Amino acid sequence: ESVNTQCNFLAVECESWEKFLAGDCFECESDKKNGTVCAHFGLTSVQSVHTSILQNWEKTDRSLVKLFTITGADWPYCRSLYRVTVEISNSTSSREHNGEIGEFDIQIQGTAGKTESILLYKEQYYKPGSSHRQVVAGPNVGSVTSAILRWTHHTTFNILSWRFKRAILHVKFVRVDSLDHKQTLYLCPKDEVIVSGKPVRLQECSSVISS
Questions:
Q1: What is the dihedral of CA 63, 68, 69, 72, to 10 degrees?
Q2: DSSP alpha helices (H): ranges in 31-162?
Q3: pTM, whole model, 2 decimals?
Q4: Is it true that the peptide bond before 76 is cis, omega within 30 degrees of 0?
Q5: In this model, does residue 140 exceed pLDDT 70?
Q6: Nearest to residue 118, comparing CAs of 159, 91, 147?
Q7: Where is the chain membrane-spanning (predicted)?
Q8: What residues does CATH 2.60.60.20 cover in the chain?
Q9: What is the CA radius of gyration of the chain?
Q10: Alpha helices in 10-90 (DSSP H)
C-alpha cells in the first residue's frame, strides 16, 4: 500500500514509542540543521532519510534512525497523524467544581472530510489547569477546521468521586496539530462547561490562546 497510494504514510523520528504517542516528537525538520527526521514509508524511505542526515547533520554517524507512525487496523492501513492537546480550564468555576474522572473522544473535521470518533488518553482524573496530549491517527481530513469533543464521566477509580448532580468538566481549549499539513489550530467550545456524555462542537478560538 505504501508503494502506490495518495496517502503520505509519514513516520516521525523519536527516541521511543512512548514519547512518540505522548507527542514529544511531532516535527518534520529534515531540511534544518540537526533537525528531526521524517520519512514517507515506501521504496525510497531509507534513501530519503540517509540523504537528509548527510545534508543537514553535523555528525553523520547516525546509521540507525528510529521512526514511528500509526497504521489502521484494516485496509486502507495508511493514516494521517494528529497531535491532540486538551487543556482543562483553571478558571474559578473549574477550581470550585474540582476535577473529574473520565475519558475523552474526539472527531476531527476538515476541508476534505472527518475522522471517526477517536478515543483519547486513558480513563483518568482531570485536574483544573492540567494539560493532556496524545498522538492519534485517522484519515486525511485536509486542513482542520473544527471538531466534535465528548467527555464521559466514569467512577471506576474511586467511589468518592460519585456525584449526585450531573458530572461536568471545564475545558479551556483543544489544540490540534496536523503533521501532514504542518498546521496548528486552537479549538474552543462555546461554553467551557462540558456535560458528561454530551458531544460539543469546537470551533476555531476567537481570541489568542495562552496555554
A1: 110
A2: 45-56, 92-97
A3: 0.83
A4: yes
A5: yes
A6: 147
A7: none
A8: 80-204
A9: 19
A10: 17-21, 45-56
